Amino acid sequence: MTKILHLKDLPITESTVCTVGNFDGLHLGHKEIIKKVKDIAKKENLKSLVITFHPHPRKILNPKKYKCSIVNLETKIYLFKKENIDYLLIVEFNKDFYQKSAFEFLNFLKNALKCKVLIVGKDWKFGFKQEGDIQYAKKVGSSIGIKVIPIEDIKSNSSRISSSLIRELLSKGELKKVEKLLGRRYFLIEKVVKGDGKGREIGFPTINLKPDDDLCLKKGVYVGYLEKDEKVYKAVINYGNRPTLDGKKTFIEVHLIEDKVDLKTEEDYVKVYFIEYLREEKKFESVEDLKNQIKLDIQKAKEVLEVEKVV
């Protein structure tokens, strides 16, 4: 079972194999690194440990260049637990942590995390103003007892698998391409929140979720599934601002096509799968026009889900 750690929980007492990165989306390239960590940990009788950051460092250090995230923290933690690593350290990233020099960061790995082996991508940069690189890490690591192993890029169809590429594809609604790079369906784990009842008023009740404000996902209507307690429900999902009804707040609204599920607002978490992008959001001339479009969306979703494998 994966143990979740924060800086206040350190130091740990068991020697580890470490890797460090943002791991947004935990795509196939990331999973190769995690596999290497686990393989070496098993061989050397060490514990596997992943260090990741929240929020994304670029969001703090260079918000103008920060674009968006593939998944939220809740989903990232879930994905790492599925990988069966021993420890996941979530560093609440701030400017104080950023000011650690490259040398200080390597010593942090050694002293606070008992890191014996460090596995990272070959282009890894770290420390204040990214002053450290792989060669520096190897040199200093060998002097303080950390073996540094660089990993080559993982490719798909000769192209490097990267979070940046996945963000771009998500922002265009190209979910099939995203799935190939993630090695899984794209989903989010979100907490149920209380809605305003507008969907129920027009005959299409929804389960309402409040996503992070920096999600890469293209706004619009999707075919998908909602999963709760290992049961899967067919759904039409709207991610956006509901321009016909109010257009003010951004929600994920999930309308179940055939079934109902009882959920406790503010207590329940659900997993929402986004299978296919249907259409962009638009402001309809009337609520009646919106209702007619939703009926068409539901019919299209049924057709899509007839041929799509249930998750």
From TrEMBL:
Where are the annotated coiled coils located?
none
| Gene3D superfamilies the UniProt entry points to | HUPs, Riboflavin kinase-like
Broadest EC class?
Answer: transferase
Any one GO biological process:
FMN biosynthetic process
Give the Riboflavin kinase domain ranges.
Answer: 181-306
Where does the source fall among the domains of life? Bacteria
Q: What is its EC number?
A: 2.7.1.26, 2.7.7.2
Q: Catalytic activity annotated for this protein?
A: FMN + ATP + H(+) = FAD + diphosphate; riboflavin + ATP = FMN + ADP + H(+)
Pathway-wise, it operates in:
Cofactor biosynthesis; FAD biosynthesis; FAD from FMN: step 1/1; Cofactor biosynthesis; FMN biosynthesis; FMN from riboflavin (ATP route): step 1/1
Q: Which UniProt key words apply to this protein? A: ATP-binding, FAD, Flavoprotein, FMN, Kinase, Multifunctional enzyme, Nucleotide-binding, Nucleotidyltransferase, Transferase
Keyword Metal-binding annotated: no
The record's annotation in PANTHER family points to:
RIBOFLAVIN KINASE, RIBOFLAVIN KINASE/FMN ADENYLYLTRANSFERASE
Summary of the function given for this chain in its UniProt record: Catalyzes the phosphorylation of riboflavin to FMN followed by the adenylation of FMN to FAD.
The entry assigns this protein to a family as follows: Belongs to the ribF family.
Protein name as it appears in the record: Riboflavin biosynthesis protein
- UniProt lists the gene as ribF
